Amino acid sequence: MTGKTKILLVDDSPIIRHVGNKILTKKGFEVLQADNGSKALDALRNNHVSLIVLDYYMPVLDGLQTLREIRRFPYKEKSGIPVIILSGEDNPAEISKLIEAGANDFINKLKLKATPEIFLEKVFGLLNHQKEVEYYKRMKLSHTLCPEVKEFKKYVDDCVNKYFQGETLSFDELEAKIITEYNNVHEGNVTEIIYDIPSPDDFIATHSVNSCFLTLMFGIYQQWEKEVTLNAAMAALFHDFGNLSKEVYSKESVDYEHYKKHIDRSIDFVRKSGLPDESLQIIANHHERVDGSGYPKQKKGDELDKISQIVSIIDTFDTLTTQIGLDKKMMVKDALRRLLSWENQFSPALLKDFNLFSMQFEFKPND
Ligand SMILES: [Fe+2]
Ligand SMILES: [Fe+2]
């Protein structure tokens, strides 16, 4: 007895079992697997299972036949187990047969892989874990990003391609990482990227992607115009690209003067990439502070536009929570508190907006 909640995952596709198993074990469930209905019934007889995820089309016994057998078990603790049907089937006649047979919910196979949050919301819902259900409901907000992200990827690809045409590939390693991250985004793992804390070596790659997506989400949350959101997100993505030289971080003490020049190097990259002036300005301003204590131009107050300031706040927030030059990354709540204490450096109104956004979004359930 491990004490973990057991979920029986029944599918003849090893890929679906692999994906489902990965999603569920990551959330602390013990996953039993079966590749057909008959084996599923055996597993059910021999185990205490709390939930069944059942494929529709399978050899030996299909999902409907298996479901009917499950509901015929003599004891309620077996016959009453909630069942989620996993299928690409959307024929209403088949769906109603499944409902009649006692299916509790349905999940499209494609969604299992592309949007695990929708699957997890159903799983936790049927297990009556209300707190998690609320969490995954909020996570669905990130899926409103999908069309944006698609367009965003196209946009970024164009820029990166332009830069590469006839240019020496100087940022290859980390750019490759960024592009890999985009591919993950394309697969729908937006939340994974935002919440995964990287190893320090991957700091810039992850920090860039984190900042980019936080900016994208903040823009959507605040209903900025699409163009404004994209330009800000692109700026957030490239703001520290000038830091990609490894020596900046490999030294025991950071060469601060060299470090400061990363802004010019980032701008140089962006200029070659053909990004708009709006993005360029945000990058130029990302270390400026409203009290004039920033760099490189010690700009003050009204000299800094709202979007630049927000990207600065996001940049700082992600730096605090992603560990750079620190022994330990900060917890989200501590980072927010720290940010709020810097009301001279950042506009208090924008800090408040970011704080509200972070509460709305709840970065991680345990932070
Ligand atoms: Fe920076
Ligand atoms: Fe940064």
Walk me through this protein's architecture.
The structure is a single chain. With 367 residues, the chain is an alpha/beta fold. The chain folds into two domains: 6-128, Response regulator (Rossmann fold, 3-Layer(aba) Sandwich); 143-361, Hypothetical protein af1432, CATH 1.10.3210. The protein is 59% helix and 7% strand. It has 20 helices and five strands. Strands 2-1-3-4-5 form a five-stranded parallel beta sheet, with helices on both faces. The protein is elongated, with a radius of gyration of 24 Å. Residues 207, 239-240, 315, 319 line the site of one fe (ii) ion (FE2).
Topology overview:
Elements: E1 6-10, H1 14-26, E2 30-34, H2 37-46, E3 51-55, H3 63-71, H4 76-79, E4 83-87, H5 92-101, E5 105-108, H6 109-114, H7 116-126, H8 130-139, H9 146-164, H10 172-186, H11 190-195, H12 203-221, H13 226-238, H14 247-250, H15 256-260, H16 262-273, H17 277-285, H18 306-322, H19 332-341, H20 348-361
Parallel strand pairs: 1-2, 1-3, 3-4, 4-5
Helix pairs in contact: 2-3, 7-8, 9-10, 9-16, 10-12, 12-13, 12-18, 13-17, 13-18, 16-17, 17-18, 18-19
This protein binds fe (ii) ion (FE2) (2 copies).
